[in-house]
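R.M. (postdoc): so does anyone remember the format we settled on? I'll just put the structure tokens first.
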């Protein structure tokens, strides 16, 4: 099943991380998720993440405790009715966004997914060459198929032009390194990471992230 279906139709995150679903931290702003699936060469979105969706408690706690603007460590994700899966993530808090590279457990081949989150309050400061720089980074990590840069670049630019409201935006690139039959759990991990990064960035709005140069 292609990633576009799992993201659009998969169930919401199960309340397994000890965070109350009553949290209203994003009540005034939704998160709209777009993505590219490299194996099927499919662009999908926007998919609006559930405002009551739960951030990953352990990841959020680790990000809060990090002394700088980067973090690396394990993430355990699960979906309702599915087994848990262990990933590793490398997270950076930049001046206009946060980016997370999600790796399969023990994988050294490259990230299964790259997720970038742009909070609504950082949209005005988004770098002019955001799409180009994001895709250059993805190509360097081997997460984007050869010959697809222009198509994905144009799709990201179109999404940025259309999304002028108060929504936070998230873009994901799936490399296809995670087994296709386990795509649902990766989809849930992507959603959970996006929700967690958005909350973390909201809490650290007064901090001084690293330069986006």
């Amino acid at each position: 099943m292609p990633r576009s279906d799992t993201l659009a139709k998969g169930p919401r995150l199960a309340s397994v991380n000890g965070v109350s679903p009553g949290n209203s931290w994003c009540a005034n702003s939704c998160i709209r998720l777009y993505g590219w699936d490299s194996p099927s060469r499919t662009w999908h979105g926007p998919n609006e993440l559930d405002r009551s969706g739960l951030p990953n408690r352990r990841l959020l706690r680790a990000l809060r405790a990090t002394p700088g603007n980067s973090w690396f460590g394990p993430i355990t994700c699960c979906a309702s009715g599915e087994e848990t899966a262990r990933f590793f993530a490398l997270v950076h808090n930049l001046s206009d966004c946060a980016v997370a590279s999600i790796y399969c457990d023990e994988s050294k081949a490259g990230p299964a997914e790259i997720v970038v989150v742009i909070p609504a309050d950082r949209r005005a400061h988004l770098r002019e060459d955001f799409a180009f720089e994001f895709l250059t980074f993805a190509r360097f990590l081997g997460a984007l198929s050869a010959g697809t840069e222009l198509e994905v670049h144009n799709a990201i630019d179109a999404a940025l032009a259309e999304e002028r409201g108060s929504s936070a935006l998230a873009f994901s690139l799936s490399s296809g390194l995670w087994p296709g039959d386990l795509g649902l759990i990766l989809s849930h991990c992507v959603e959970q990471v996006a929700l967690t990064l958005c909350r973390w960035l909201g809490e650290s709005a007064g901090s001084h992230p690293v330069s986006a140069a």
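R.M.: ...and that's the designed sequence above, right after the tokens. Also worth knowing: The radius of gyration is 16 Å. Residues 183-203 form the longest helix (21 residues).
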